[in-house]
Predict the structure.
Amino acid sequence: MKSGGAAGAWFRTREPVMAVFTLLGTVAILFVALPVVAMVMKETPQSIWETLKDGSVRRAIYLSASTALWATLASLLVGVPLGYLLARKRFWGKELIQSVADLPVVIPHTVAGIALLTIFGAKGMIGAPLSEWGVRFVDAQGGIVVAMVFVSMSFVINSARNGFEAVDPRLEKIARSLGSSRAGAFFRVSLPLAAPSIASGAVMCWARAISEFGAVIVIAYFPMIAPTLIYDRFLSFGLDASRPIAVVLVLICILLFASLRLITRRRSKA
Amino acid sequence: MMEFNGVSRSWGDFKAEGVSFEVKKGEFFVILGPTGAGKTLLLELAAGFYYPKKGSIRIDGRDVTLSPPEKRRIGFIYQDYALFPHKNVLSNVAWGLRVARVGRKEAFARSLEMAEKLGIAHLADRGVGSLSGGEKQRVAIARALVTKPEVLLLDEPLSALDRRTQDAMRKELKRLNREMGMTMVHVTHSQEEAMLLADRIAVMDGGRIVQVGTPEEVFRRPKSEFVAEFLGAENLYRGHIEKEGDTVFFVSGNLRLEVPQEVEYGFSECRAIVRPEDIIISPVKIRSSARNELCGAVEEISDYGATVKAGVRCGGEMFKVLITRHSYEELALSAGKTVYISFKAGSVHLF
């Protein structure tokens, strides 16, 4: 009787709809976590060690991480100013600019690759003049970075915009009344206050860049980044040959992602 | 000191239209007006946060109409303080000095000195998030003053504070003005605040300055119905002027009031106000130098504690009379009681 009453109380206070939500939420998380965990469990420390001894695997992973880093830095350089303008200024065509910034999210990545190839190809608008200076994009690191920037920059733009929007514009006005220039107010007040938001956007940008495959293979199949190498091994040698590399890549990504998150989280709290 | 000359600008729903006034050095100048009158815009124009479309602004003789804020040597105080959330109290105060490339040690020493003047030195190492409203406003003021501005611009600085802190802060502002000789331009919608602080008041309405004068001038001799009503004139009557021999009367229906002879009575339509505190109330007809004596019945009584306001209907019009608690009890006023009210001809203000 007593336990029945407790169960009744549980039912009344928790509300049955929450139990349904918990069940459905669990399905969602398992759907993502289960395949990744199952894949990782298939491998042994020995097989991972063997994979890491393969020079081409190490080179591909390093290439992925470094090109993604360059892509993130490039996104920050042009995305943060745009985010600031979107947060602070009212101008004609702002909606359009915002839509263009979000465009890479909605177009298929192979389409993005083809679009980029049109511009950065040896005969493209940008590719042709730059090739005379010896800068190549097709099957080159430059092409990988360009593809990564295209698909991941919107994370930086939007996080910067959100970050700047949360900074009271009057703080900048006060800064100027205290003798600071426009640029000084930006660098001393707005940027530091928006930094945590920008940093988490940069982490997302980097994560998105390192996982990009579709846009990259269209413009630069070689040199092979890790996802390309995995795909290549899968086509040539099958699942058992590609899985160890996939597991290594996933583990490294999770490790880097988690530690970057931790650092930016701590920064924003300070 | 600070001079506005025909300044016009609109921004969103707010506007300033042909605004001209001059603030003298060391003066406590209050801009008073209802919400939406354009007071804040006016202050932000003075600061250089916005630029005028027409007209010019001078500060200390320099034309600063199109100068950026950092070149104007002004201090600005917002209602909600606008402290830098990523800096502690002392770093907030020292901010302007650090921007001006004053060395770290000297900047902090001077900031601490200013913090002491405002009674917040003990909070120097605290984060600004944990401060009370009054403390935050003191930090904001110290932060502005440490850069030695020519003029301090204050945008409703007391509105966000509780009553008791308001009183303390108001005294603090007055002290800064008197002791440091700081020129203050203070924006508010509270007439009480304006009366207590101002050397001169500029009343603003719909983007225009409608009257500038000392608190007494604006209060006693409002130039328009808006000013009279906004300043809380309760005994406001519409009527016309009549002359009988040497005596001049204001007539409104059954009401007939003697007014000063020197008044210009050329206008047919006019309005009159009588301040509630200028009226004397008595149970019987009294002989006095007061030229206007009316008989009426008490209709309402509002008790404010130390003072009491009685509404007496005479000649079809309601007269609000302000009396002390003491005389209220002595007169044993109550609704329906017949009384006499009297006031001087000079107390009837026509406009």
Observations:
- Residues 74 and 182 of chain A are 24 Å apart (CA to CA).
- The two ends of chain A are 52 Å apart (CA to CA).
- Chain A has a mean pLDDT of 90.
